[in-house]
Amino acid sequence: MFQFYSSTKSRLLHVLMLVLLMGIAASSTATESLDIRVGNFYPNYYKNAEQQWEGIDVEMAVALVVRAGFEPNILEIPWSRALVMALQGQVDLLANVNITEERSEYLHWIGPQRYTQMSLIVTRENAALPVSSLDDLVAQCKSLGLKFGIQPNVTYGDEFDERLRNDDAFRGCAEQLTGPQNDDKVLLGRLLGYFDEPLDVQAERRRNPEYGLVVHPFTAIKEPVFFGVSKASVTTDELKRLLMAYQSMVADGSLEAIEGKWTFNTQDQ
Questions:
Q1: 71-76 and 33-38: which strand pairing?
Q2: Phi/psi of residue 124, nearest 5 degrees
Q3: Sorting pLDDT into bands at 50, 70 and 90, what band is 203?
């Protein structure tokens, strides 16, 4: 999102942001805090063996709040309830949020935080399967006699969704199942693969390099997600501090470094 015209200008901007943020932190009181919403959803948010919150989205949110000079206060809240609480000013910061017109009425947006995508998940043996389009996907399904899995009530992009509605051949290649069932069916050779956000598979492969599923290069949709900041509870000054912190983290690579802990290129699998 942010472009810098030279490495010197980038370094100067970074230094200026840090100086400003240090001044903000020094002038703020130690009791200032912001509430961060989390949920039990690995690997975005989860508790480790010491019962401390970890995960890509909680780490990004905490880093942002700390950089802005606030104390993070983590609250576990179901997603639908968190949106209502943000509207009412009962929680300050949400991570991994898609922008909608309705949400924009009660949330400020900071970001993009990162990008999410719906990728084809397959076995290691099919990591190089020749699929680079939806037509290729249909051809492979027919050739191998296997369907691909999708989840109910999930959007996979305009073209994908349109073909599910109106293309009999494409719809006939899709099987609607929940995530765990998709994993099992792919590993047992009963599904060609399934479409999902690849974070959990990539995290599992970091823990166990011999894990049987990988992320195929073909992606149905890729879109940005943002930090959502409650308009009802966060003041204009606090919002400015968060925006400056975000810009500083983009400039020095902090957000990118956190994302790198949890993801890797499909070529590196």
A1: parallel
A2: -60, -35
A3: confident
Is the preceding omega at residue 112 within 30 degrees of 0, hence cis? yes
Nearest alpha-carbon partner for 239 in 227, 251, 224: 227
- Cβ distance 248 to 67 under 8 Å? yes
Residue with tokens 């290069």: 217
Helix ranges (H only) for 53-178 are: 56-67, 79-88, 134-144, 158-166, 168-172
Q: Please tell me the pTM assigned to this model.
A: 0.78
pLDDT tens for each residue of 45-92: 999 999 999 999 999 999 999 999 999 999 999 999 999 999 999 999
At 179 the pLDDT is 60
Token output for 108: 């400020």
How many residues does the structure list for the chain?
A: 269
Report the pLDDT value the prediction gives residue 269, as an integer from 0 to 100.
56
Other Cβ atoms less than 10 A from the Cβ of 193: the count is 28
Enter the tokens of residue 129: 């399967």
Q: What is the rounded distance in angstroms from the CA atom of residue 91 to the CA atom of residue 79?
A: 12
Buried/exposed 198-230: b ≥16 CB within 10 Å, e otherwise: bbbbbbbbeeeeebbbbbbebbbbeeebbbbbb
Strands 107-123 and 33-38: unpaired
Per DSSP, what are the bridge partners of residue 34? Answer: 72
Q: Please state, rounded to an integer, the average pLDDT across all residues of the chain.
A: 88
Q: Which of 117, 121, 119, 101 is nearest to 109 (CA)?
A: 101
Helix, strand, or coil (residue 123): strand
* Among candidate residues 246, 216, 219, 263, the one with its CA nearest the CA of residue 93: 246
Residues 6+ apart with CB under 8 A from 265: none
